[in-house]
Amino acid sequence: MAKPEVEFTPVSSVEFTPCDPPIEGLSEAILARDDESDAVTRILKFEPGTDTSPNGPLRHDFWEEVFIFEGSFVDQRLNKTFKAGDWATRPPGMEHGPWISETGAKMFEVRYYSRDGAGHE
């Protein structure tokens, strides 16, 4: 089934739940999911003081597009701060993170696979 059709709806109507794997202070609100393709649209929330370093850097087999709309965090690998208004497009296999957010942050994120289902070439 494709992502559901949803007319404008307040984000506050979607519950934040712990991410998998769980990291203290990191949660997500799934806005839409396509169970067949596993494409996901979500809000990712960093509470103040969140540190994702226990999970180390990430790599995954899907495309990821993110837009920070509130707060900031430090990418520990790059030693660089990213803040509201910054965005990224990550192809499958791209290394990113870990992060620490002293003040908290929220990101809008879309994850999807290529049409042919292939990962990073």
UniProtKB/TrEMBL annotation:
Signal peptide: none annotated. Residues 12-108 form the ChrR-like cupin domain. Gene3D superfamilies: Jelly Rolls. This is Cupin. It comes from Arthrobacter mobilis.
